[in-house]
Each structure stands twice: as C-alpha cells, then as structure tokens.
# Entry
Amino acid sequence: MYGMGILKGLSVTFKHFIESYTDDLRYAGKKLTTTQKFEKRQGTDTAGVYTVQYPDEKIAVPERFRFIPFLVVEDNDHPERPGHDWCTSCGICAKVCPPQCIWIVRGEDPVSKRPVPEPQAFFIDIDICMNCGYCAEFCPFDAIKMDHDYEMADYDRTETHIHDKDKLSKPLSYWRKIAPTTAWEEAIARGSWEHQDVVKQKQKVNAPLAIPGPTPDSPYVPPIVPVKEEPVETTQVTGETAAQEVVREAAPPTVAEGTPAPAAASGELSAEERRAKREAALARKAAKQEGGEG
Amino acid sequence: MTDQMIAPVRPETTDVGTAIAYLKEKFPDAVKDDGRQGYTGVIVDRAQLVDVATAIRDELGFNYLSSATAVDYLGVEDSMEMVYHAYRISGGPALVFKAQTPRENAAIPSLIDVYPGADFQEREAYDLYGIHFPGHPNLKRILLWDGFYGHPMRKDWKEAYYEEEHKPFDSRWPKGFVRRAEELNMFGKNVRYPDDLDLSRLSDDSEDSLYRGMGLGVDVETFDSEDKLRTDRLVVNLGPHHPSTHGVFRMVVTLNGETIETLEPVMGYLHRNHEKIGERNAWYHNMPFTDRLDYISGMSNNLGYALAVENLMSLGARYQPPTYRAEVIRVLMVELTRIVNHFWAVGFLLNDLGAFFTPALYAIEEREKVLDFFEATAGSRMMPNYMRFGGVFKDLPERIRSVANLVNDQIRDFNTMDYLTDLINESLPRAIDELDHFLTDSEIIKTRTRGVGYLPADMAIAYSTAGPLLRASGVPYDVRRADPYSIYPELDFDVAVRYNGDIYDRYLIRIDEMRESVRILKQILPRLERTHGESVFSGNKAVYMPRMPLGESYGRVENPKGELGFYTVSAGDPKGPQNPWRYHVRAPSFINLTPLGQMAKGQKVADVVAILGSIDIVLGETDR
# Structure
C-alpha cells in the first residue's frame, strides 16, 4: 500500500518524540538538584536526546582529553624546591611541535654562560597550537602536559593568546588532579612523585626522597577530587585551596561529597574515617563557597 | 557486473612484473625501469605516454587510475615528474608509471582520453606545479584562483609567511624569543599578483566578474522548446555559502528552465596547501595534519598516512612492523569511524532531500558514544592524532570515563571492554536498524532518489571514483579486499555492492557497509580480549625525528568516503631525510567530484543538491 513506508518512518519519529518526555516523567516527582539530575540523565539508561545546557552544565572530560599545553612545576609546599620548573629546556617539545608554536629561551648561567637545565622563558602561541599532544608525549621529563581547560575565548588575540611561563606553569598537584591515572603511571615509571633528575641525584648519594612515590607493586589508588566545583584559576592562584589539600593527601584517597568511595578505597578506610573525611571535605567546600561569594 | 566492464586481461600478464616486461617489449624505446633507489615501476618517454597508457589500460587491464600526481625534483634531478598509479579493477597491486619533463616549459600529454579520472588531478598538477597538459580540454586552475602568482608546490616557491625550508625552525630554540609571523611579514606587503591581472577586479562585485574565467555569459536567453513551453536559459551559482554544499563549495550551473545543461564545480575555498605544509614538516609532524583532511573520519586518515610511511620504512633495514594488538586497535578505530561517517552521510543526505535535521540528529545520536570512546582513548573527539609509525599512541584506557573526573558521576564510568561490547553488539546495530526502518521504505525518499544521479559502472571506473560511489554502481572494488592491508585478510566480511548507480543505491550501500563494519567489529572484540596487555607499539618508544630510507611509497586505505592514498617520496639527503620530499594526498572527496557534472546533466536543480549529498564530500579533504 502506498504510504506505508512513510507511516513506518513516522512511527520512529513518534517513538523519539515520546522518549524525549519519558525522562521528564521519570524524574518529575523526585527532588534532584540540577547537578545530580544532569548526571543521572546523562547515564546509559537515558532515553531520547538530552541537551546539555552549556555553560551552566558541562560534560566532564576524560583523562586523556587534551587542550593547550601547560608546564608542570613543583607544588608551592614542596619541602625542597617549591615552585621549581620541571622543564629542563631541552627543546624537544619545540622540535616535535607540528605547527611550531613553542618558543623556548634556554636557561643560561649569567657568569659562565653555560646552559642550565631550566627555561629562562617559555612561550606558547595558543592560536597556533593544534592540540596534538606531541609535546606531552615526547617530553622525557613529564614536564609539559596537556590541559583540560578549554574555555579560552578572548577579545584580543595579540596579547593574551601568547602564553608566557607564568601563565603556563601549573603545579604538579593540578596534573595529578586532572589526570590521576596517567600521573600515577608516570610516577611509577620515574620511581617517585619527584622530578626524574631529583630521583637520580638522590639515588646517587643514597639520600631519602622528599616525596616518596608509588612503586610498581603498590595498588592503584586514584585520588578522588571533585573537579566541577572548583574552577581552575583558584587552584593556581591561592596555594591553600581545598582542592590542593585534597590532592596532596592523595595516596589515602579522600572521599568527595555525596558519593560512595570506589571499591578499592572502601576496603582500606573504616566507616569513621570516611565520615570524618567527608565532613572535613564538606566543611572546606562550604568555607570556600562563602569565600567565593563574599 | 556487466561484460564490457571486465577489461581483457592477457592471462600471461596478471603479474605486475610480467606486465612491465610486456610493456618494455612492446615499447622498447619509450619504457624503461625506474632504477632509482627505492623506486618502483617504469619511466615512460613523455612523447609516447598516451600510447603506453592506452596499452596499459586496454592490453594489460590496468583500467583504474588511482592517483596521478606531480613531483618537483629541483636540486636532485632538476626535472619534474608525473606519477601515475594504475590498478586493475579486479584487484591486485599497482602498475606505477612516470613521465618526466624539464622544469622550464613543463609539459606532459594529457591522459584524459585514456583515463577520464585524470581530469581534476591534472588540473591540480597544473595549478600547483605549472605543468601543462596538452590535450586537456579545460586546463585551468582548480584549487587556487586565477589571481594567484606562481605555482606553490614548486620547490622554489615560498609562502607569504615563509620562515625556513624545513621544520623544526631554528628560531624556536634555544633562543626562542617569540615573534608572531604576521609581525615579521606584514599582510598586504607579502602578496604578489600575476602581472597580467587586472587589479580593479578585486573591487568589482558585479555578476560579470563572478563568471569571468568560466566562459559563461549571464544574459538571460529566452527560447521556446518543442512543446512550446517558454523557458529561460540562465546561469546560477549554487554556493559557496549554501547549506547544501556541506561547506564552501560552488557549483556553477547553466539552466534551461529548471533543467541543468552544464554544471561546473568550483572549489578551493578551504585550500591551505596541505601538501606544501606537509613538505615543510618532518615525517611525524604530518600525522595531526591528516586529521584535518576529512575531519569526520580522522582515525582513517591517520591509518592511511601511517601505512604509507610504514611502507617507506620497510625499504630500510631497521623496520619493525606494527604489533598485532596495534593492528587490532587500528581496525577497531577505523571501522568505528566508518560507521560514524556513514551515519553522518545518510543523515545529511536526508537533510539535502528536505527532511531537515530530524534524520540527521537521529543518525548522529549513536555517533556521540563512539566519539566519547575516541576522546577517552586518543584525547580528542574528531582530531585523534592516534596512529604512530609502528603502532598506536596508547592502549585503550581501562575505563572510558575516569573515576577521578566524575566523582559525582558514577553512572557514566564504564569499563572499556563492557562499553565497547555494548556499543558494538547493542547500540550500533540498533541504531542502524532504526535508521533503516525509518528511511528505506519511505515513498518520498524513493521518489526523490531512484534513478536520479545515475552513474554507470564503466563511467564510475573511468572517472576513478572510489568508495560507496563506485560500489553503488555495481563495481565491487574495496581496497580492504582488492589490495589488503592490516589484518583485513583474516577478517570475515563481504564487500557491499549495489547495482543501480543512483542516489537510492548510494544510500542503501552505506547502510550495508555499516552492517558489514559491525560484523568486522564483532570479530575484533575477541581479538582485543585475547591480546589484552600486549604492546601497542613495535620497538621501544616512538622516535620523534625518524630518518627514512630513500625511495617512494604509496599507502592507500579504504576510507569511508573512498580510497584515500598517500604518496610519499623520501629524497635528497643521502643519510636519510627527516622531511618528506613529496607528500601527496589522493583525496577521495576531490576525485569523486569528477563525474558530478555528468551525473547532474539533465536533472533538476533540486536533485543536484541530493546528488552532491550522495557523493558525500568533506571540503577539508576536497580543497586540502
């Protein structure tokens, strides 16, 4: 019969039409906050097309997500070399960069004019950067990493879009926060949370490491850090925000607000400890929110 | 398959070596072996090129011209060369033949009469290299406009923001004080026009200037047809800014009433001289640039380039082929890409037919899940930069969504294998079935697409079309079977083929191919589990500045849009150059447009939009 094909097609449209309301009906009576609702509705059992109300809602990005690179520096509370660059200005990232957007001024001893393993200046033109991730992949010192911060729109490209060393530098704890698994694997490969050269030096003189790290046989415990609540800028500027504290005590994992700890962690922590941690985290968050609003 | 399609292959010449011997015997003066280190095929005297090519096509059966491209050997041999890769449509390796010409007044006879598919490729060689093709009926610039000075792919041509001959640039390290390129080379002062260009044209926005160089008048001409229906003949621009062109692409059509008399595609609005950039780059640098060619299927482009360079590396002594797990992951990625691309193509074909965005959105719903997987694995949804020479960037992650980033979001944290299993066994087949149910029987679609945009099999081969366009015309030619690569020989799948050669069959074949891809992916899953934990990279670690052995290589893959080929030449520095001497992309989106004018002739204006949609082009690849 003529027209049956169209009716068949329309049945598909009708199914989609109904599906786009089933979730509304499902969550109609339940008091879910916007965030929770968003995540529930992004789950596998979601029916219909669900729109993310960007920028109010954001999809979390996976660990390997890559955007403009940043330079890893030591945390500000590092016992031996706070804020020290991990970059040795070897120039490999500048060479592998396909669009050649990395500019490095090699560090120089002012007296002897010999090169020192530290960049004097470091620039990345983020308009030219094509986010390929080669610099991070080929860096032998884990000193340049790809960021997760993708909101870089600006009114002026000539000044603000050439990132200098200050703007590029972010502490190691930030990297551990955005990519815990990768950071963990890299630390195992280096033998510590310390810079590779520091590890070698210490091994030579048999000195203990300031921050001993994971070993290949230590069980993998990803540090649990809430990402959504904390904008990146806060963690960079102030040294004492909640996020960084949480990251620093990463090896025993902190439990974030409102979630059960993952299976690996729950076995190691007693219920009391978990409650205490959780209360502490909530208090920090509340304090931070007040500070942010006021 | 009809009889006249099968070219008479002489039984004793099935092997390429025998074919070359036959050629040398028949043309003792004109054909000689290409004896340069790492090169294959024959060099043909350009005076007899057309005769030799005719023999190659008719007597030896190499009736499918895959790629025709130019190389400038300035400083090595001081000559230019056209390189042709001809294949048999029944499968097998290529017969490579070349014709050389001096750089001054470069001219090589056109092969357009032997292989009509050489049309756009010769125009491209003329545009970028300045080689003239006597015999070509329409030899004019194709990617650049006629106010462009010089031929940019020549080795002595320098771009406006020229810095150095090769990357990495010395100014970046160790004294890398940042300078923006446009500060050094002010815009406006770095542009040169040909001497005979009338510069007043630049401010002339009249209709006349739009069609100048096309040989078309714009006067409306009225004439009465036989049935006394008064019609107007007029020239209409479809594009460049038009949603139906899938980008910035222009079709200049001459209409008689509503019927198309001639159609000429105008392209190049997105041209960035990808190949010149590729030759400035080092070998590794090109990988992320290939993502940007056909940006719907970046993974497949990566594979094509990786294959071409691995072919080249295999000429050298220290070459380790990719590990088995790397190959499995590559096929996984490429087949997922194919499904994604066909979802996209079918969805937007329906857009072109007037079903505005409802089918497109249903089609790309599942695409999101695949892209989530790409993002978790490679780091980017559409610009993966995932393949490396000898393997892939990283193994699949244990979990698709990292726990850490999604503390409050346990729902979307999946084990990768579970996610893939669900995707391949449940979501994707369901989505394909739904699309099939939704569209295939629809009377509107049938009426609009059946018998429209007909491309017969012999023309499809002659015009060097590839991919779904070729297979929907009844030619079961698929590089995965015809010239297998990676682990395709051990996988069980069928080459989808349809015989009517119209838009409807081009739609159906995409549904078929998606089903075949799901079939392949189902065989990939157990292989992934079996090889779990094995290395995804041969050798220790990727070398960031590999040196290549001297020679040439052509790597081709069956991309979702057709055959994607990379022709790379490594020449110059005898120690092994760090930069490609030649880096050519045989772009399916570009060459598949060759028969567009033929297909559109006699159709209505509204159908042209659908015909273009059924070819499925991406302008990033067409214009390069």
